[in-house]
Specification:
- This protein is mostly helical and 202 residues long.
- The chain has one domain: Tetracycline Repressor, domain 2 (Orthogonal Bundle), CATH 1.10.357.
- Helices cover 75% and strands 0% of the residues.
- Helix 5 packs antiparallel against helix 8 and helix 5 packs parallel to helix 9.
Length: 202
């Protein structure tokens, strides 16, 4: 790990657990054992550190979904959707600091006044939702998922999964304990019914 990566890792942990506004650059320098000037050399501003963390999160999201879903060509869309759900839960569990940071208020407050931050957040959520939509589109082609608008259904399923992740983020409930019920709920939402077959516009 190089110095820049070390700074980002320490900043992610501090911002996630202490909050962006309550973390000083002096604390970050102490946590990484570098001079404040070194941090400013790499990132220019504290906000620059934060934006770099969001960019790193986007890259990690893309990498994880590509790794977990690369060998799914022979599976149905419904099975691929279940892989997307599992991948998101794995990603949120293995990148706890990043997701705690993503679930803070600050990124969205900053996005309201900073177009770069807004773009980063939009890209992160697009990268998170796209695998759900691709799975649903495949399922609609192979008949394992009904024909309702794929993007809307992807957003509904993603919101369901992300809601459980947020419970875990705030130490309210272990999302993994509801995995079987979550998968069953996704199936009930997406599997075509007899009435769907009679009325494809449902």
């Amino acid at each position: 790990m190089n110095k820049k990566q070390s700074i980002l890792q320490a900043a992610t942990h501090l911002f996630a657990h202490k909050g962006y506004k309550d973390t000083s650059m002096a604390e970050l320098a102490q946590a990484t054992a570098v001079a404040e000037g070194t941090i400013f050399y790499h990132f220019k501003t504290k906000e620059g550190v934060f934006l770099a963390i969001l960019e790193a999160l986007k890259q990690e999201v893309v990498r994880q979904f590509e790794a977990h879903m690369a060998e799914e060509e022979g599976r149905s869309g419904l099975e691929l959707l279940e892989t997307a759900v599992s991948t998101y839960l794995f990603l949120a569990g293995s990148q706890d600091d990043l997701f705690q940071l993503l679930h803070h208020r600050y990124p969205y407050e900053l996005a309201a006044v900073n177009p770069v931050c807004r773009d980063h957040l939009a890209q992160i959520y697009q990268c998170l939702v796209d695998p759900f939509e691709r799975a649903i589109l495949r399922g609609q082609r192979d008949g394992s998922i009904d024909g309702r608008p794929a993007r809307k259904m992807a957003l509904i399923i993603f919101t369901l999964v992300d809601g459980l992740v947020r419970f875990k983020t705030h130490n309210l409930y272990d999302a993994g304990a509801l995995y079987n019920e979550l998968i069953l709920s996704c199936r009930r939402i997406l599997i075509p019914t007899t009435s769907d077959a009679r009325n494809p516009s449902c």
